[in-house]
Amino acid sequence: MLNSLFSEAESFWQLLLDEMGSMFLPYRVWQYVILLGCFVAARLTARYIDPKIDNWMRSREGLSTRQMRFMIATARRSQGILLAAYCWIAVFVTRAFIAFPSRSYLLALGANLALAWVIVAISARLIRNPLLRRIVRFVVWVYIALSLLNLREDAMSALDAAAIDFGGLRLSLLMLFQAVATLAVLFVVVGLVNTEARKRLQSVEGLSPSMRVLSEKMLRLVLYGLAFVIGLQTVGFDLTSLTVLSGAIGLGIGFGLQKVVSNLVAGLILLLDKSIKPGDVISIGDTFGWITDLSARYVSVKTRDGREYLVPNEDLITGQVVNWSHSNDLVRLDIDFGVAYNADPHQVRALAREASGRTNRVVAVPAPQCHIVGFGDSSVNFILRFWIRDPIGGLANIRGDVYLSLWDVLKENNIEIPFPRRDVTILNKD
Predict the structure, then answer these.
(1) Domain that holds residue 272
(2) What is the residue-wise DSSP string for 263-299?
(3) What is the pLDDT of residues 165-215, one digit of tens each?
(4) What pTM value is reported for the model?
(5) Are residue 129 and residue 213 in the same domain, yes or no?
(6) How many domains are there within the chain?
(7) CA dihedral 56, 62, 66, 72 (to 10 degrees)
(8) Terminal alpha carbon distance of the chain
(9) CATH number of the domain to which 377 belongs
(10) pLDDT of 103-150, one tens digit each?
(11) What gap in Å lies between CA 27 and CA 11, rounded to an integer?
């Protein structure tokens, strides 16, 4: 393998040396000068028109996000677009006065390379992952450049010679590059299809939030799985040869990925049994908030103070979770208070129900309830029960509002809220 690789590399290098030997011929030197002039002109022109393009884009209204992203990506490549345009103008002018195409070959090559770079860079914006976008942009442009330089076949032969054999599997650099490029294109297509399908699922009426999330995740898994298999088979990758790795993968899943697999299975169970869904208000341990997202490994819980907790799916299955909005959005809250013994308990009960009704978030049906729960050392103890429908708005604040309303009502009716007192008597020993 090494001898074949060295042979291919040597022949490819010799081809480059032969090409470089004719680089400084007179008819090519003046083409270099024109290309340099086109580059300087494109740079100066871009500096002049970029602020005007930016102001024009800022004045545009009613454009979608996709349209704005395309316009921004195009504006950022203004220098490359101008360079390609100036080079093509130079090609047409040169060929108008000189009949030999070889005298404008380098100009046409520079124009094609610049145009190819612009098209590839703008098209790569469809890929959201920055790292994948850079890889695809580089690989595609290098492939086009080698094709324009008539070096594609030699480069492919050299890459194909760099291969290793693993059992019945032959893996070369050429196959690796082809697989990356093919998978990148397929993943882009799958991403666009998945986005459109997600929009359609969001508009389906009668589909519960948990089933909607489950459908989205299953669709994404199927689409990306098919894209992966199709991409590898397209480049000639024999998937059956991977069976030798099944034992090692199973062992890794059994030990190193035990928690990961457990969370994946727990996430699937949560979606199937509909115990929690996006928008539910839950309490787990000391964490109280509402669910914003259900992922394959964790559940995102956002609290009222702006913190976002990533709770593993396994904890929601094995731990005790309070779902305030599981069956319905009606939540009961209790507050305790006490009044002096000289107060009329019947009047206190009526005033407490009236106080809770003054708060906006307390619902009228079911009606608030107030009961005596005991006779304390210094007060008659009551419990006030009321219901709300928006636990996502917070619980501590509504309790505080009801306490404040109860304070005002009791003060208006001259009902004392006692506090413990102790009388100390000092006896004179004399």
Answers:
(1) 260-323
(2) HHHHHHHHHHHTSS-TT-EEEETTEEEEEEEE-SSEE
(3) 655 566 667 677 777 777 777 777 777 777 777 777 776 665 556 566 667
(4) 0.42
(5) no
(6) 4
(7) 10
(8) 114
(9) 3.30.70.100
(10) 677 777 778 888 888 777 777 776 666 777 777 777 777 777 777 767
(11) 27
